[in-house]
Write a structure and sequence with these properties.
alpha/beta, 7-stranded mixed β-sheet, about 10% strand, globular, disordered N terminus
Length: about 675
């Protein structure tokens, strides 16, 4: 006892205050001991399953399906559980029911003649599946995942069995009551939702939710309700965040990309941003212009008529010209960005129809610029200024956009370290020698982790700082720099050749040279150096996980780099990239047995998945397996629990020594 007294009396005032606060929650030895036992037991549970996804780019149907089927994990569970006891068609129907219970139930009820018998059989099957997916969690965690309406009933079914003689009638009575009271449909929907939730313990989105596909807002709606998610910002995400912060250049870029991919759904339907002023302006100014270079990129499932596509092309050109003018203002205001070479409107010879870039002249494909004054090319016309004021007002006053962007900040960051994995979207700026590149921001040099920490701070200041502060103005401009600046870890190229791609035929001018990171990322020593920079030890479970650069599997490229140290999991969720990648996305799955990469084929549609059981065809590649199954003890959460246990043990010592009095 004397030894314990010495330990506790040596406590600092701060430690003693902390233990007194802790004693308010655990009031005596019994309560503290019970909590230690509970936490110690949790440490020995299997590690929860983490899912990593990146570059979703608004493809909400494929994203939604991958979440619902847990990247094929639910299908594999059902195959393992039911083996040869169910036909393949029966297993497929059970999978589809779990993925889409609300939509599948009416179809089943149309064809089932003995619906009560089907209910009984299905409820038994779902209960077996739920037992399997919940087995690695505490009862408390499972209870928190249960819907309130059916919490008690599901718990009883989970922990009782119809095989126990004393409980047989009780168990079956619950099933019969669910059916006889007309709650079977609601119960199936509830239990399917719990299965989905428990199959994925945590979800990591490694950037680029926005742009290209039509449903970024729907994806954000899903993430708002998701039980455990974090987001590492991508360049397209930061562009939208900059637009929501009121950066006019970001707003113009967002609208231009939406026009480029004929994606009006997210802007208009999702966020209620009124594009009618842009349409009216474009029809007036570019009425006789075919705007061929601005024709939207559409797939074979294009829903738009030719007249609508022509209007989009006109809107596309109108906002592109405005964008080039607005960007000039930032470049002039921020010479430290070093982007003067991107000011090209004043390099156009309007009489000869050529543009001078880097000392060479190139013919212009298009010389119709009714809103550009050759003597003052960067000044907005009165009509353009009025249009931008209205568009900016729509962006900053969209309640839903504000809610989603706040979620980006709450759940997001520039990078994240979790269970020895370092996640960031694109790159860490490096020199060609493999050293961390020094980047000057407001006269201070940053590199490696300190650079990302400083940028994370600026991204937050752009949205949350005082309205008229100089620091906020710089931070808002920096949001645009993150989109296209050469030293941005989200871009990391020498230039963004948007102007050249629209107006110059010579493809040599379209080239964007990648930073040194992209030539060094397959070097294992470089990856280990980056991991060390972020405080991650070099062991078999430490990896860098990112996206940004589509992996062209069709050309033999591999997502696995640097002897497995770096995993690039952009496989092309975006339909625009699928012809290049040859697949339709990756999911990385890290469970208690190791690390697996799931490669997905294109998803046909939710409708076919429900009606015909058309699941995403996915192939699984095991990257790493553990000799011993990983437990919570081996995770970051486990380390936090061990610290909590240590604090509780110190509290026990304080109680035992009399330093802190117990209460009842």
């Amino acid at each position: 006892m004397a030894q314990k007294t010495n330990v506790t009396t040596d406590l600092s005032d701060y430690d003693l205050k902390f233990l007194r606060l802790l004693s308010k929650k655990f009031r005596n030895v019994a309560e503290a001991t019970t909590e230690i036992i509970n936490l110690s037991a949790i440490l020995n549970l299997p590690k929860g399953t983490e899912h990593f996804m990146t570059d979703i780019h608004g493809e909400y149907e494929a994203f939604n399906h991958v979440l619902r089927n847990a990247s094929g994990v639910i299908k594999r569970k059902i195959n393992d559980i039911f083996g040869g006891t169910l036909l393949d068609s029966e297993k497929t129907e059970l999978c589809t029911l779990i993925y889409y219970p609300e939509q599948k139930l009416p179809l089943i009820k149309e064809k089932e003649q003995e619906i009560d018998a089907w209910y009984r059989k299905t409820l038994f099957q779902l209960n077996i599946v739920l037992r399997a997916v919940s087995s690695k969690y505490t009862r408390s965690k499972v209870r928190k995942a249960l819907p309130s309406d059916f919490s008690y009933i599901i718990e009883e079914l989970l922990h009782e069995s119809d095989q126990r003689p004393n409980k047989h009638d009780y168990f079956n009575g619950i099933i019969d009551s669910i059916i006889s009271t007309g709650r079977a449909d609601d119960f199936i929907i509830a239990i399917s939702s719990v299965i989905q939730r428990l199959t994925i313990d945590s979800l990591h989105i490694v950037g680029d939710i926005y742009d290209r596909g039509p449903g970024a807002h729907i994806i954000m709606d899903t993430l708002e309700k998701y039980h455990a998610v974090d987001i590492q910002w991508g360049n397209h995400d930061v562009l939208w965040m900059g637009a929501a912060a009121g950066c006019e250049s970001c707003i113009a870029n967002v609208i231009r990309i939406s026009m480029r991919y004929a994606n009006l759904e997210t802007i208009e339907d999702g966020y209620g941003i009124n594009l009618l002023p842009l349409a009216t302006f474009a029809m007036d100014v570019y009425n006789d212009d075919p705007c061929d270079a601005f024709t939207p990129k559409v797939g074979t499932d294009n829903p738009y008529k030719e007249k609508t596509l022509r209007l989009m092309a006109q809107m596309h050109k109108a906002i592109a010209v405005i964008q080039f003018k607005l960007e000039y203002d930032i470049i002039k205001r921020r010479p430290e960005f070093g982007m003067e070479n991107r000011n090209l409107l004043d390099k156009i010879d309007f009489e000869r129809g050529v543009v001078n870039i880097g000392g060479a002249e190139y013919p212009m494909k298009d010389m119709n610029f009714p809103t550009i004054d050759p003597k003052d090319p960067y000044t907005l016309t009165d009509e353009e200024r009025e249009l931008m004021d209205r568009l900016k007002d729509s962006f900053i006053n969209s309640e839903k956009l504000e809610r989603h962007i706040r979620l980006m900040y709450t759940k997001g960051s520039l990078y994240k370290i979790c269970n020895s994995n370092l996640m960031y979207h694109a790159s860490i700026p490096l020199t060609k020698e493999g050293e961390f590149k020094k980047v000057k921001i407001q006269d201070v040099e940053y590199s490696g982790r300190s650079l990302l920490d400083k940028i994370d701070q600026l991204v937050r200041e752009a949205y949350f700082s005082g309205e008229n502060s100089n620091q906020r103005e710089f931070a808002v401009d920096f949001m645009w720099y993150l989109w296209c600046g050469p030293d941005s870890p989200l871009f990391d190229k020498d230039q963004m050749t948007t102007f050249e791609r629209y107006f110059i035929a010579d493809k040599a001018t379209h080239k964007e040279r990648k930073g040194a990171y992209y030539s060094l990322m397959s070097d294992e020593d470089i990856c280990i150096k980056i991991l060390h920079e972020f405080g991650i030890a070099n062991d078999e479970h430490s990896h860098i996980i990112n996206g940004h650069i589509p992996v062209k599997t069709i050309k033999g490229e591999s997502p696995i780099r640097a002897n497995g140290r770096l995993l690039v999991i952009d496989g092309g969720f975006s339909k625009a990239y699928q012809p290049e990648t040859g697949i339709a996305g990756y999911t990385l799955v890290f469970n208690s047995y190791g690390l697996s990469l799931i490669q997905h084929q294109p998803f046909e549609s939710t409708k076919k998945a429900i009606e015909e059981g058309r699941d995403i065809i996915s192939s699984r590649m095991v990257l790493e397996t553990t000799t011993q199954r990983m437990h919570v003890r081996d995770t970051d959460i486990g380390q936090d629990l061990l610290k909590q246990i240590a604090d509780l043990e110190r509290l026990l010592e304080a109680y035992s020594s009399g330093l802190i009095a117990e209460s009842r």
